[in-house]
Design brief:
This protein is α/β, with parallel strands linked by helices. It is 48% helix and 16% strand. The longest helix is centred in the last third of the chain and has 25 residues, at 396-420.
């Protein structure tokens, strides 16, 4: 419930203008509720209409993407790039290729990205993009033709000092490679920093693939140690999803002594009481690009269950939602509480509904929002940009060490802000406030732009 008149007025304006964009409204409201505790100390925000500017993207690009499938039929998808805020650096944020993509989803992701990038302390603004194209089931040729068509429009809006996209759901090394090749062909120069998540031979960073999943665990280790005097050792863990973030989150959980017993995809989840065999999972998902149900066919003692949301009924100590937005509702959160779960650390962007967050927090579980705990991916994208700029490649261990340090600093920033707001350990509040203050100060310093 918003009580500050300025926050209420701005939110009502967003609601009136963008009422058809539920994901975006959800993201804005969460941040505004956190700002209630600090806004009275900053009358200059209202004097300069700062929040009105903050919730309005600097630029929204929407375009058609025509491409030819393997049968010679012309297909048409819709492409987006939302360049939300460049106060602290060039726009930075991934590209998502998934049927669920629409303007509301891209705006909420871009809005979250502003604060996430701010928390990394690296000079990156917030943006996001993508398309309703679904790469699943498409041949390499079809994906290439789509990516080339997508970049033929997008290229004019990006650049290493303007906007530097990366991957997200549905956009991995294959898609980034096709888009980078088309960008290079069109502009006739090797501008390595224009896209991140590139392959190692042409400017990618070691540890980038693992960064988001590893970063979730590095953040969680700090929270468990500092707020509970505890660790992953001996804990039973659920990691929803089975994409890039989930895979490497599960790998690092296992390395830290936890046991991941359940993972999922969009159709259902697998439960393995002996702990997920990551070699089998990686082969299914990375090499064969198959459904997670195959795991149960190949690993004795494991079970496959239809319905991915039911994964939260599995008993666990720690939950890592790493699939997609709003994947955990109130029912799922209550199931975790009833089964004795102690912590929920987000790996996806906004995977808990507001009702789920309320249940998790009101029952005393540790909770971190994705804008803090999954910031390792974009942080390492920033490190990739740095390597491109200085024409050098750091070792895996060097990048991983820098990532670890960044995630520890993000946790500290969130915790310190929660203390200053009078709610020690409220990491959602801390993430929103700490991320926003840096951007707000930059916006004020740069005038009305």
């Amino acid at each position: 419930m918003l009580t500050n008149e300025y926050l209420k007025r701005v939110y009502e304006g967003v609601e009136k203008r963008d009422g058809h964009e539920p994901e975006f409204l959800q993201a804005v409201r969460e941040v505004f509720e956190s700002l209630e505790l600090v806004i009275d100390k900053h009358p200059e925000w209202e004097e300069n209409s700062l929040l009105e500017r903050f919730v309005e993207p600097e630029r929204v690009v929407e375009f058609r993407v025509p491409w030819v499938d393997d049968n010679g039929k012309v297909q048409v998808n819709r492409g987006y790039r939302v360049q939300f805020n460049s106060a602290i650096g060039p726009y930075k944020g991934g590209l998502r290729f998934h049927p669920s993509v629409n303007l509301s989803v891209i705006k909420f992701l871009g809005f979250e990205q502003i604060l996430k990038n701010s928390l990394t302390t690296l000079p990156m603004g917030g943006g996001k993009g993508g398309s309703d194209f679904d790469p699943k089931g498409k041949s390499d040729g079809e994906v290439m033709r789509f990516c080339q068509s997508f970049m033929t429009e997008l290229y004019r809006h990006i650049g290493q000092f303007t906007d530097t996209p990366a991957g997200d759901i549905g956009v991995g090394a294959r898609e980034i490679g096709y888009m980078f090749g088309q960008y290079k062909r069109i502009v006739d120069r090797f501008e390595g920093g224009v896209l991140t998540g590139k392959g190692i031979p042409y400017g990618g960073s070691l540890a980038r693939t693992q960064a988001t999943g590893f970063g979730v665990c590095y953040f969680s280790v700090e929270a468990l140690k500092h707020l509970r005097n505890d660790s992953y050792e001996g804990k039973t863990v659920i990691v929803s999803g089975s994409g890039n973030v989930a895979q490497y989150c599960a790998q690092k959980v296992t390395a830290f002594g936890g046991k991941v017993v359940a993972m999922s995809d969009s159709k259902g989840y697998v439960y393995d009481p002996n702990g997920i065999n990551l070699d089998v999972l990686f082969d299914i998902k990375q090499r064969r690009r198959a459904r997670i149900s195959v795991y149960a066919d190949e690993v004795p003692g494991s079970e496959y269950h239809e319905g991915c949301k039911n994964i939260w009924n599995v008993k666990c100590d720690i939950a890592h939602p790493c699939a997609s937005q709003n994947e955990m509702d109130a029912e799922g959160a209550q199931a975790l509480v009833d089964n004795g779960c102690m912590a929920v650390f987000e790996g996806a962007n906004m995977p808990l509904t507001p009702e789920a967050i309320e249940i998790v927090k009101s029952n005393g579980l540790l909770y971190s929002p994705g804008k803090a705990s999954n910031a390792g991916g974009v942080a390492t994208s920033g490190l990739e940009m740095s390597q491109n700029s200085i024409r050098m490649s750091w070792s895996f261990d060097e990048v991983d060490e820098k990532l670890h340090g960044i995630m520890k600093n993000i946790y500290k920033a969130c915790y310190d802000a929660s203390v200053e707001c009078g709610r020690p350990g409220d990491l959602m509040l801390g993430a929103n406030v700490a991320g926003f203050l840096k951007v707000a100060n930059a916006m004020l310093a740069q005038g009305v732009v």
